[in-house]
Amino acid sequence: MARRIGFSAVVLVCCFWVLCHAYLVDANSVRVCAFLDSGIPAPERMPVFLFETAFDGYTWNYHAEHLGAKGQWRLRWTDFDHAPEGREVHWNSAFAWYLRGLGEGYRHHTGETLRNSMFRASIWANPILLVLALLVLPVLAARRYGSLSGSVVALGMISGQTFYDGFTPGYPDHHGLIALALLGMVLGIVWAGAGWVQAGDGDAFGLPTSVARARRWMIFSALCGAAGLWFSAVSATMLLLAVGSGALAAALTFGRAPADAVFQPLLWRVWAFWGAAASLVFYLIEYFPQHMGWRLEVNHPLYALAWLGGGGILAIAGEWLATGARKPFPWRRLVWPALAAAALPLTILIGGEAVYTMRNGLLLRIHAYLEEFLPLARLIANRHTTWFMAVGGFPALPALTALPLLSNRTPRGTKAVLLTLLVTAILMAALQLCQARWGLLAELTHIALAGVLIPQLWRLLPVRGAGRLAGVAGMLALGFVFLKPATANKFPPAWKQYRQGARPGVDFGQGIALLHRQVARTIRNDAAGRPVVLLSSPDSSCMLGAFGGFRTVGTFYWENVGGLETAARMLTARTDAEALALMRAHGVTHVVLMPWGDFTAPFLVALGESGTTLQNTFAYRVLVNGAVPPGTRRLPFPPTDSPHELARQLDQRVVLLKVE
Q1: Angle at CA of residue 361, ends 587 and 88, nearest 5°
Q2: Cα separations (Å) of 138 from 174, 177, 183, 204, 448?
Q3: Range scoring the smallest mean pLDDT among 445-454, 546-555, 636-645
């Protein structure tokens, strides 16, 4: 009873932490905007700002606001960018409807405009999801592995910096959903014993005592993994490959050990079948019947086929390894699973850019300048993060996992589960070192590993005496290492700003968001109700377009590679006449340039234009030299009705041009 009470207290404290953080961020945003909007009539006020790097969040709000327009109830087309034509969009419709529902609910109770309501409600979007997840996943962990495991999972979900970033208040993006779905997939495999089952009277920690029980958890894992494929096919695929590698490593390592548990290949077949079937259902929900095609950047039936093939390979190879390789390897049985698994990568290899836009040469060259695609060491060298912020206390986990793996007191099946998770976590950490964007997946594997490792270490400690006290002290120290970042980097800054009252100060990131908010209002006032097509840097395009409801040209989304190239050619044009001709051809009405987010130099390199220097580009002449090209008119900024000179305070020279 005491353990259950303690576990319940941990979960409630975690939920309280998340909700308090969301409340503080929401209150701070409203206070800052109210102070800056003093004197502006309420109907003319812009939406509240979002988290400083929530560029996708701004775009999500735009998509959700326009959901249902022209009979499009799924996210298949947008006019947000690639003006004037617009372009395909392949984001998850369910998350867009979730945001729309929150916005409609807020509008119903306040009478605000839909856009303003959606921005305000979207501050809470992912914190709400995290609280719901805290009431499910840790509870399942506690029921399966005990209260200590449930507590570790709950604390890991709020203390893991990269994991929690997906649920940051004011960051309405699908990364949180991806994290939850794939964490559920990994935990389900763990609770199923990673394919290992002990006898009904066995006492190995955490292993199921029947195939039927393990099967239920494998189905749970498969459904979560299929949802992960729906939300992000590439993320789910990487983790599926890592999990499969971990399972094979466990079968190879412990296949010859004395049998206190048995590897059950049927469980991996069940997992693959249910995962493939569910991912196919999600594909039909999203694309059937009007939008079925060959876009392999997102969920597609070929992913279901690959999952089926991969599950077959895992079952066949795992069974052979777990039996000590006493028989010849069953090559013939692998033919059909291998062909099924190979269909997806072969189609991408043969089809190239036509089926997988990420192979586009321009995108690949541009990715070399985007932080999420850079090696982690480079970001740290550039002081954009630190090793501890990026990986937390993960280096301690492999060392600690070695203790039960080397202990004779740890049953073989438990070792197999630990090794499966350890290999998965190491592979994802290696992927994070290559590209920083994989940190989210790496950290969720840390949470799952800790949820098994900590309870197993506790079981290995002496029941009484100095050994138990030393173990308790060590676990408290480990908890401090993992929890301290959450305490230092999330809640306190928001609390400090909240205590400043009705006129709080803002940091640089908030200031940049507020500056874009002010620019969007200036453009909207100048347009006087007429449609706006905006040319700006990719990140500014997301923020300004969503704030003002404008159409834009260039953003970084893979579906918008054509618009990105068009914007790049406008900004790097050698002559003003060339730039103006391109703008008029694409209906551009306004141009916004500022040093922050300026991407002209990378565009110039990515386009490979010979004979053009940065100083000869349209953007440089306008922003640095102060030129006003013929056919354009400069708009005064900051607006005359605003006493707050954010541009000067942020050391940003903002240039607004109206294309005549």
Answers
A1: 45
A2: 21, 16, 11, 21, 11
A3: 636-645
DSSP state of 83: T
- Provide the pairing of β-strand 632-634 with 533-535: unpaired
**33: part of which helix (H) or strand (E)?**
helix 2-36
Window from 63-72, 356-365, 542-551 with minimum mean pLDDT: 63-72
Beta strands in 22-178 (DSSP E): 77-78, 87-88
Q: Beta strands 87-88 and 262-263: pairing type?
A: unpaired
CA distance 257 to 502: 67
Residue bearing tokens 């005359």:
640
DSSP readout, 540-607?
HHHHHHHHHT-EES--S-GGGHHHHHHHHHHHT-SSHHHHHHHHHHTT--EEEE-STT--HHHHHHHH
Q: Is the pLDDT of residue 643 over 70?
A: no
Output the pLDDT for position 344. Answer: 96
Taking alpha carbons only, the member of 119, 161, 176, 124 closest to residue 20 is 124
Lookup: tokens for 380: 């740290």
> Which residue from 393, 508, 478, 474 is spatially nearest to 163, judged by alpha carbons?
393
Q: Which of 386, 62, 389, 19 is nearest to 167 (CA)?
A: 19
Residue keyed to tokens 């030393």: 470
Residue at 508: amino acid letter: F
Cβ–Cβ < 8 Å for 632, 658: yes
pLDDT in tens, 528-570: 999 999 999 999 999 999 999 999 999 999 999 999 999 999 9
Alpha helices in 260-334 (DSSP H): 265-287, 301-322
pLDDT at 1: 72
CA separation for the pair 402, 411 (Å, rounded): 14
CA angle 319, 321, 324 (to 5 degrees): 110
Distance CA 172, CA 100 (A): 11
Give φ, ψ of 302 to 5 degrees: -65, -30
Distances (CA, A) of 252 to 27, 320, 456: 54, 9, 22
Dihedral (C-alpha) 497, 501, 507, 511: value to the nearest 10 degrees?
A: 140
Q: Which of 348, 240, 224 shows the shortest CA–CA distance to 298?
A: 348
Helix axes 301-322, 265-287, angle to 10 degrees: 170
CB-count exposure of residue 558 (10 Å: 0-12, 13-18, 19+): middle
Residue 467 has pLDDT above 80, yes or no: no
The DSSP code for 636 is P
503 band by pLDDT with thresholds 50, 70 and 90? confident
**Strands 551-552 and 590-593: what pairing?**
unpaired
Token pair for 205: 């920690």
Please, what's the largest Cα pairwise distance for the chain? 85
